[in-house]
Design brief:
alpha/beta, six-stranded mixed beta sheet, 28 strands, 31% helix
Length: 697
């Protein structure tokens, strides 16, 4: 360390100048690799989440929830492997992975940043991050994210067990002031939960008054499999959540700060003045590049192409949300990084994101949500000016394009269908890779009539085949009159299309896919419905798999169990409207169609309802049933009887047991039967809102 504990760049193995050159080289390599659809990457990760230890000085209700694991610290040998094999190429380290980086492993973090001139993206609960620690890293500090979910001490300490609100708030005020002084990006972050939602606008104001110029409100992901009761987007109405959001936006405008709202789509409201501290030049450049890649490679998550996570024991995965190791690429304690980075699982993950054939976990994630259609992109203005010396405001956005829809993806070229366009003699079709100004393709299309007086324009196969496959081309259509010097109409939005080229799954990959009967263990917010719209009907969420090992899928954590005693409910008194019951049957059929083979044999806790036995040709029997396989007319009298009956049906060919949501009470009422199931047969689907399915094979 240099004077006053600051980082001494003269001792770095990689100088700041070398780091900038390496980062630019990696980005250029990656851009070419993505465009060509390569599966093996010469480029190396831009950012790594490194869990230097698993120790946290708090136990948040949406994280460890009072059940922190035994303390572990990364071994010196693993630290050396990270330094020697990742350090020379990394641009950013985020020392945060269900742990607090400023406690037992702070010195290791500072040493890694110092030796390799890596920027530090620090996410911290602020209890131990004080002025002294700030001074140690300020020269390489990319940003500080303050995880403070409420400005109300009692609420904050309830959410974050072990927190000392007075100390956290005092440190936060100091660090906000220092970030302003040294022009380091400072972000206040709050997880949107049932506990803090009503006061969120006041929390935004509190951050702003403290000098924090950027506040981020993020949705809760139930990564510990027991935080569902805290998900405000599940339990509050969409109308109420919109009201809270609008109040937060109004507060940000009044306080002249930037607000990010990330409950489903990433919404940004920026009211900062021109001289407000923003991100470092390197971060701003990479953020802009990531935004371009989202348009060029729709559905390709940035964590899948140049980020990764290294846990305390060396497990490597691309994503910090992968709490159940669904995407694990390898282990750095046992393998060299090159073997992991271009191994079969890593290559298969890249293939999945090129083709939208996602593994089960990624399929639930908001980071693969596709960008919406746009009002305009840079190529639109370029075409107007180069072709006609015109501007967007002079061309009416009145062409009624019916198809192809936004994000058309196919191996064959599309047909553009539009309503009749009076006074237009020809059409110019323009498209561009990622919507940018380079590589624009333009072609005049001839219109053919339809029986309904609409028009059809065929995109030539010759043009279609010239396009790169599995990347996003953004397009628009112009209508022109004969002899006209400028178009008289254009399509009102810029849409995207993808020339699809299938890529076979990679042999040896450990990824698990929905069409193999695998369900993700957690839901990561993809296509999230924010809030309910119909009273008594929760927002739709995808079915999830059981954790396994006898652990129920959706149980409250230790703290929640202490705070609220479960009420004893007689299942016979639980009623469901006929409309909701019919909807449930449809949902169960969809789950069976996705999860079970076409020739499966299923036994169903049907209570005699024949509709619960109709699964697209699959064999299904009542459970319990008589010798003729009609419903027995009663629930099992006890666990021993249920176990014996189940095993007899297994001997007769039953392969799966399905418990509809209406029979979920069996798993608590028949305790020994539930234990028998969980210790012998994996729950391949465990969704308390739809059904639970055990594999009896």
């Amino acid at each position: 360390m240099g004077r006053n504990g600051s980082i001494d760049a003269s001792r770095a193995r990689v100088t700041p100048e070398q780091r900038d050159r390496i980062s630019k080289r990696n980005r250029a390599l990656l851009e070419r690799e993505l465009l060509s659809g390569r599966l093996d990457f010469e480029s190396r990760p831009y950012e790594a989440h490194v869990q230097f230890s698993n120790v946290c000085n708090m136990s948040c209700i949406m994280c460890w929830d009072g059940d922190n694991p035994p303390a572990k610290k990364m071994s010196p040998e693993l630290l050396e492997r990270i330094g020697s094999q990742l350090g020379p190429d990394l641009a950013v380290i985020t020392p945060h992975e269900a742990s607090e980086p400023t406690v037992v492993s702070w010195e290791e973090t500072v040493d890694m940043v110092k030796r390799y001139s890596i920027d530090l993206a620090l996410t911290t609960n602020m209890q131990e991050f004080d002025e002294q620690k700030f001074d140690q890293v300020k020269s390489r500090l990319e940003m500080v994210v303050m995880s403070i979910d409420s400005h109300v001490p009692e609420v904050f300490e309830k959410i974050r067990l072990g927190a000392k609100a007075d100390k956290v708030f005092r440190n936060a005020s100091t660090i906000a002031r220092l970030c302003q002084k040294y022009r380091i990006e400072c972000i206040g972050q709050a997880v949107f939960m049932t506990e803090n939602t009503p006061m969120m606008p006041e929390t935004v104001a509190w951050f702003a008054d403290m000098g924090v110029p950027f506040v981020s409100i993020v949705g809760l992901n139930d990564t510990n499999r027991r935080s569902w009761h805290l998900d405000a987007a599940l339990h509050y109405s969409s109308e109420y959540i919109d009201w809270i959001k609008n109040r937060c936006v109004a507060t940000a405008k009044e306080k002249k700060i930037r607000l990010a709202w990330f409950l489903s789509d990433y919404e940004m409201f920026d009211f900062r003045e021109a001289d407000a501290p923003g991100p470092k030049h390197s971060k701003a450049g990479n953020d802009a590049w990531d935004s371009q890649m989202r348009l060029r490679h729709p559905g390709y998550c940035r964590f899948a192409y140049n980020r990764l996570r290294v846990e305390v024991a060396g497990n490597v995965s691309p994503c910090g949300l992968d709490s159940q190791h669904e995407l694990e690429l390898g282990n750095l304690s046992e393998q060299d990084f090159d073997e992991i980075w271009n191994g079969p699982t890593a290559q298969d993950l890249r293939r999945a994101h090129y083709t939208w054939d996602y593994p089960s976990l990624c399929k639930t994630c908001r980071y693969v949500d596709l960008a919406p259609a746009m009002d305009a992109l840079p190529f639109l203005d370029t075409v107007l000016w180069q072709q006609w010396r015109s501007r967007r405001g002079f061309v009416a956005p009145t062409l009624e394009v019916e198809s192809p829809q936004h994000m058309y993806r196919a191996t064959d070229p599309p047909t553009i269908r539009l309503a009749a366009a009076a006074g237009i003699d020809s059409f110019l079709f323009a498209l561009s890779l990622g919507g940018q100004t380079q590589g624009i393709e333009m072609i005049e299309l001839e219109a053919g009539g339809r029986s309904d007086a609409g028009l059809e324009l065929e995109v030539p196969n010759s043009l279609w085949q010239r396009l790169h496959s599995n990347v996003g081309y953004w397009w628009t259509l112009f209508g022109v009159r004969n002899g006209g010097t400028a178009p008289v109409a254009r399509s009102p939005e810029v849409r995207c299309m993808v020339r699809h080229a299938p890529i076979a799954r990679i042999d040896g990959s450990r990824l698990k896919y929905p069409d193999e009967g695998h369900f993700a263990p957690i839901y990561l917010g993809g296509d999230r419905q924010v809030g309910w719209t119909e009273r008594g009907k929760l927002p739709t969420r995808p079915p999830l798999a059981g954790i396994g090992g006898g652990q129920p899928a959706a149980t409250p954590g230790p703290r929640f169990a202490k705070l609220r005693k479960a009420a004893a409910v007689d299942p016979a008194t639980v009623k469901m409207t006929p409309e909701h019951y019919q909807e449930l049957i449809g949902q169960i059929r969809a789950v069976v169609e996705s999860a079970l083979p076409a020739q499966a044999s299923i036994v169903v806790a049907s209570k005699g309802d024949l509709e619960l036995l109709w699964f697209g040709g699959r064999s299904a029997w009542h459970f319990p049933c008589d010798d003729a396989r009609d419903w027995a007319g009663f629930h099992p009298p006890n666990s021993d009887w249920a176990i014996g009956h189940l095993e007899r049906m297994r001997d007769e060919g039953a392969e799966y047991l399905l418990l509809p949501a209406t029979a979920h009470w069996w798993l608590s009422h028949y305790e020994q039967f539930a234990a028998h199931l969980r210790t012998r047969y994996p729950a391949i689907v465990e969704d308390i809102e739809r059904c639970t399915i055990f594999d009896l094979r």
